[in-house]
Structure formats: C-alpha cells, structure tokens
Design goal:
The protein has 82 residues and is mainly alpha-helical. The protein has two domains: 1-46; 50-82. It is 68% helix and 0% strand. It has four helices and no strands. The chain has helices spanning 8-27, 31-40, 52-65, 70-81. The chain is elongated, with a radius of gyration of 23 Å. The termini are far apart.
Length: 82
C-alpha cells in the first residue's frame, strides 16, 4: 500500500467506533457516568453542572455576597412562576 492511498478499513472502523460512542451517550440517562466520560475524554467540566454539595456551596456563597435580598429573590420567583 502506498502512503497516499486512503486506509479504508481504519477509517471505517474509526467511524464505527465514533458512532457507537455517540449512540451510547445519547441513550444514557446516567448523569454521573456521562460526566465521567466527559472527564475521561479530557474535556473541561460543563459550566453550571454541580454536585449537590457544590451547588449548596455556590448557593451559600451567593447568599453571603449580598447581591440580592431574599425579598428580591422571592419577587423574581413569583414573576417567573406566574
């Protein structure tokens, strides 16, 4: 085989592998497992995705920052709910 000839079997098996990964990811509802896959592939974490503990810490820090009072927060949620 010459260097300039395409390597069809390799390309075919690579595409098959990619499609299998895509199909499994789309079929999965397991958030933790998908997050592990994302980390394994070397991607940075998805912004805004937190564990329960991380979310509690974010909420606590936000509440301590004093950017919005509880009344302001309640008003926003009331408008959103209606």
């Amino acid at each position: 085989m010459k260097a300039e000839e395409p390597i069809a079997p390799y390309t075919s098996s690579l595409n098959t592998l990619k499609h299998e990964i895509i199909n499994r990811v789309q079929a999965s509802d397991d958030k933790e497992r998908l997050y592990e896959c994302l980390k394994m592939l070397g991607s940075s974490p998805v912004p805004g995705v937190f564990s329960e503990e991380e979310l509690d810490e974010e909420i606590s820090m936000s509440m301590k920052s004093g950017n919005a009072s509880q009344e302001e927060i309640d008003m926003v949620f009331q408008r959103w709910a209606n």
